[in-house]
Write a structure and sequence with these properties.
The chain is α+β, with helices and mostly antiparallel strands. It contains 15 helices and 14 strands. The chain has a 5-stranded antiparallel sheet with strand order 4-5-6-7-8, with no helix packed on it. A 3-stranded antiparallel sheet has the order 3-2-9. Strands 1-14 form a two-stranded antiparallel ribbon. A hairpin with a 5-residue loop joins strand 4 and strand 5 (about 175). It starts with a helix and ends in a 23-residue tail after the last helix. The relative contact order is 0.10. Mean pLDDT is about 80; it is low at about 470-480 and about 485-495.
C-alpha cells in the first residue's frame, strides 16, 4: 500500500469510523431489544388508523391542552382566511373577478353554516385532529339561485373506510378507500353514505359506499413519507403523553381533594362498645362520630384516633408538568406558550426566536398543503363554472387562471421596529412594496384603491394631514423644533 493510499484511508476514518456511524444498526447488548418491524407507513395507517383517529378525536374534546393546541394550529395556519389575488392583466376584468369571488364565498358552504374562509378553518382543524379532510366539489343547478353554481362539502376521514382494500371490478386497485389506476393515479374515492359513528343517522349496520370520481374530490393532508396515501393526525406524536398527563392530573386533583378532607379513624379493642361522643350510623351501617370546634374529647378505654395524611408530591409537580408539556409542545410543533398559555418563563427574545421558527413551519403548510391542495383547485373549478354559467366573461379561461394566495398577516412582536425595517428594506431596494403589503395579508391593489379614495375624500372636504419626520422615523429621530424655539446660532432656547 502506497503512502497516498494509507493517508486516504487514515483521513477517511477507516472501518472504525464507518462502524461508529452505523452504531444504530448494531445488535449489541443495549440495543438487542430494539427490533422495530420494517413496515410501510400505509400498512401502519391501514391497521391502526381507525383506533388512532378515535383516540385523537376524544383527546381533542376532553383534554384542555389538546383543544387549545388545535385552535392555535388552525388560527395560525389559516387565520381569517388565505385569500386570492388574481393576476389578470386587465385591471377592470381583474376587479370584476375578485368581486364575484368575494360574493361567492358566502355561498360556498354546502351546509350553509359558514363561508369559504370558515371552511378553511374547519379543514385546518381536521388536519390537526384526523390528519386529513376531504372536500367534495358539488355542482348545483341553475334554479338553485347561486351566483356560481358550485358548492363545497366537507367530509371527515371516517367517511372513507381504511379497511376497504381490494380489487375493483374494472381491475383498478382500491387501497384504504382510494381507487388507483394501472399507473398509480387516483381515479375515485369510495365514500360511506353515512358516518359510522353517527347514531342519529339510522341506516344499515355496515353503511354502503358510493364511488365518487377523483376529479370531484380534494384530499387535503400533509404527506410525511413518500408514497403515503392517507393522512396521520397532527396530534399523534403527543397523544400518549397528553393522555397519561391527563390521568396524572386527575389523580393529583383527587389526592388534593382527599387531603383537604380532615378525616379521622377510630380504633377500638371491643367493637361492640359505644363510640366516643354521640355516635350515629350512616346508610351503610358504619358508625360515624363528629368533632366540634373548641372541644377536648376524652377517649374511652381502648379507643385510639388516627388522622389521614395523604402523601404530598411536594415541589416536583410543577417541574414535572413543565417538562412534560414542553415535550408535548415539541411533539406538536407548536410553541410552548400557545399550547399552555404560560408565558412566565418567556421574554421578548425567546418569544421572537420561537415564533420565527414556528412561522417557517406554518408557511410550509400554507403554501404546500392549503394553497396547493385546497385553494388552487377550487379557484380553477370555480372560474370554469363561472364562465360556463355565464356569471362572467373572461375570454380565454386559461389566461384568467393565474392567481396568488395571500396568507393572513403575522402580528408584529415589535410593530415599530418591524415597520421601520420594512421601510428601510423598500428604500434600499431589497424588497418591493407589493411584498410588504401582501405580508400584512392584504391585496396591494385593494390598499391602493382605499388610499386613493381616502385622499380624494380628504381633498374634497378640504382636509389636510401631514406627518412630521419624527413620527415617520419613530424613536430613531428627534422631532424638529419649531422656528420660534431656536436662537440666532441655530441652538434651541433650552441649549442656550
Amino acid at each position: 500500500m502506497g503512502l497516498f493510499d494509507r493517508f486516504r484511508r487514515r483521513s477517511a476514518g477507516g472501518p472504525a469510523a464507518v462502524r461508529a456511524r452505523l452504531e444504530g444498526a448494531m445488535a449489541k447488548r443495549r440495543l438487542r431489544g430494539w427490533n422495530p418491524p420494517l413496515e410501510n407507513i400505509n400498512a401502519l395507517v391501514a391497521s391502526g388508523g381507525p383506533r388512532l383517529l378515535a383516540r385523537s378525536r376524544e383527546l381533542v374534546v376532553t383534554n384542555g391542552y389538546a383543544a387549545n393546541a388545535c385552535e392555535a394550529f388552525a388560527a395560525n395556519l389559516v387565520g381569517d382566511g388565505i385569500k386570492p389575488s388574481s393576476l389578470i392583466g386587465d385591471a377592470d376584468l381583474r376587479d370584476r373577478v375578485q368581486r364575484l369571488w368575494l360574493a361567492w364565498t358566502d355561498e360556498a358552504d354546502a351546509d350553509g353554516l359558514t363561508d369559504f374562509y370558515g371552511l378553511q378553518a374547519m379543514v385546518a382543524r381536521e388536519m390537526f385532529v384526523a390528519g386529513e379532510c376531504f372536500v367534495r366539489l358539488r355542482p348545483r343547478r341553475a334554479e338553485d339561485g347561486l351566483l356560481v353554481p358550485l358548492q363545497l362539502q366537507l367530509l371527515q376521514s371516517e367517511m372513507l373506510p381504511f379497511e376497504k382494500t381490494e380489487t375493483a371490478a374494472n381491475g383498478n386497485r382500491i387501497r384504504c378507500g382510494i381507487e388507483f389506476d394501472a399507473i398509480g393515479r387516483r381515479v375515485a374515492y369510495h365514500f360511506r353514505r353515512r358516518h359510522p359513528g353517527d347514531s342519529t343517522d339510522h341506516g344499515a349496520v355496515i353503511p354502503e359506499t358510493v364511488r365518487v370520481p377523483a376529479g370531484d374530490v380534494l384530499h387535503i393532508y400533509r404527506p410525511i413519507d413518500a408514497g403515503q396515501i392517507r393522512g396521520l393526525p397532527h396530534v399523534a406524536p403527543a397523544m400518549v403523553r397528553l393522555f397519561l398527563l391527563d390521568q396524572y392530573d386527575d389523580a393529583e386533583l383527587d389526592r388534593k381533594k382527599t387531603a383537604a378532607m380532615f378525616a379521622g379513624f377510630i380504633t377500638k379493642t371491643a367493637p361492640e362498645d359505644p363510640m366516643m361522643g354521640e355516635g350515629e350510623a350512616d346508610l351503610d351501617g358504619a358508625a360515624i362520630a363528629s368533632l366540634e370546634p373548641g372541644t377536648m374529647q376524652v377517649l374511652l378505654p381502648g379507643e385510639d384516633v388516627k388522622f389521614s395524611s395523604p402523601a404530598d408530591v411536594g415541589s416536583s409537580y410543577e417541574a414535572f408538568q413543565y417538562r412534560t408539556l414542553l415535550a408535548v409542545s415539541a411533539s406538536l410543533g407548536l410553541p410552548y406558550h400557545l399550547v399552555t398559555g404560560d408565558v412566565r418563563q418567556a421574554n421578548y427574545s425567546s418569544l421572537r426566536a420561537e415564533l420565527v421558527e414556528f412561522r417557517r413551519r406554518i408557511g410550509q403548510l400554507q403554501h404546500g398543503v392549503i394553497a396547493h391542495q385546497l385553494c388552487r383547485p377550487i379557484w380553477r373549478r370555480w372560474l370554469e363554472t363561472a364562465v360556463l354559467a355565464g356569471a362572467i366573461d373572461v375570454g380565454e379561461t386559461a389566461s384568467a387562471l393565474p392567481v396568488q394566495w395571500i396568507p393572513p398577516r403575522w402580528d408584529w412582536v415589535d410593530p415599530l421596529k418591524d415597520i421601520q425595517a420594512q421601510v428601510l428594506a423598500m428604500e434600499a431596494g431589497l424588497t418591493s412594496r407589493r411584498k410588504v403589503v401582501e405580508a400584512t395579508g392584504y391585496d396591494i391593489e385593494e390598499v391602493d384603491r382605499e388610499n386613493a379614495a381616502d385622499a380624494a375624500r380628504a381633498r374634497d372636504m378640504g382636509l389636510s394631514y401631514r406627518t412630521s419626520p419624527g413620527e415617520t422615523q419613530g424613536a430613531r429621530t428627534t422631532p424638529t423644533q419649531p422656528p420660534e424655539t431656536r436662537g440666532g446660532d441655530g441652538k434651541t432656547s433650552e441649549q442656550e
